[in-house]
DNA sequence: GTGAATGCAAATCATTTGCACTCTT
DNA sequence: AAGAGTGCAAATGATTTGCATTCAC
């Protein structure tokens, strides 16, 4: 696991405390937070940081390939420091978003490629259902 | 192909000219238009119709299961009168969005189900690449 | 006639932008 | 010192909401 600071430098980006905080937060969570969520989580450590900075930073990190943007069908984007193309599962009861293993993609992609005349370069796969915890709740 | 009017009635909805126009437009296109696009296309026939009505109507039709909402990762939603869960391909050059065959889903779903403890009920699969026309353009 | 649907304008929400100021390099 | 990055406030764009009017039933 490389240092966030090193990653920023490699990309020729200035290493600011805000960027470090945002990148590290994303690298240490599995929650796929939105810009708003990131902003709130960092508010205590960076009381002067503005939401605009969060958005600008996310934009930069995305363009540099350090994070990816998800759109699960809500009104807003979520962010993921795992930049491998991997499927996601969304719990339609509690809203949680989890990763699925990247390896599941290979076969899918092969099959789709054979059935379209598009030259595919990327994909976003979202599955919706009930997470184990919510399945329990609903059965009571 | 059932009549749009009949579909609305079946769902207990009042049959208004605006609803008919919107539903028919969606049922007769493969373009996956946004609310804005729908509004513009109908502007000549319904000069007094407001964008708010388009949004309200889309909301109702979606809730009744007569159309589905797509989110290809743009800033806005697109709508599709094909309510079967089917994958979509997006051309990253011209922005076109096309349907893929529903049958491609079965295997995908089976495989994913085996690898997650979520109880899946739905999915949204978006593939991104270059459509045949754009492949040509780019090769010149 | 009655309640649901429409149309307008105002409101909201996520995201973006402009610009002066402040840091990293 | 120079330019990139930040923070604020204002702008934008998509979508939603409130409410009076109109229309489908």
UniProtKB/TrEMBL annotation, chains A, B:
Keywords: DNA-binding, Metal-binding, Repressor, Transcription, Transcription regulation, Zinc. Its cofactor is Zn(2+). One of its GO terms (molecular function) is DNA-binding transcription factor activity. The keyword DNA-binding applies. Binds 1 zinc ion per subunit. Belongs to the Fur family. This is Fur family transcriptional regulator, peroxide stress response regulator. It comes from Thermoanaerobacter uzonensis DSM 18761.
């Amino acid at each position: 696991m490389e240092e966030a600071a090193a990653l920023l430098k490699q990309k020729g980006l200035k290493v600011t405390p805000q960027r470090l905080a945002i990148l590290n937060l994303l690298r240490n969570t599995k929650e796929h937070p939105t810009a708003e969520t990131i902003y709130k989580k960092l508010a205590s450590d960076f009381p002067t940081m503005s939401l605009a900075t969060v958005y600008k930073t996310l934009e930069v990190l995305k363009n540099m390939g350090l994070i990816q943007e998800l759109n699960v069908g809500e009104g807003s984007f979520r962010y993921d420091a795992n930049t491998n193309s991997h499927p996601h599962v969304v719990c339609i009861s509690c809203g949680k978003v989890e990763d699925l293993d990247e390896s599941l993609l290979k076969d899918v992609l092969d099959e789709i490629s054979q059935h379209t005349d598009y030259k595919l370069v990327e994909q976003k796969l979202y599955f919706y259902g009930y997470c184990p915890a919510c399945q329990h709740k609903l059965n009571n």
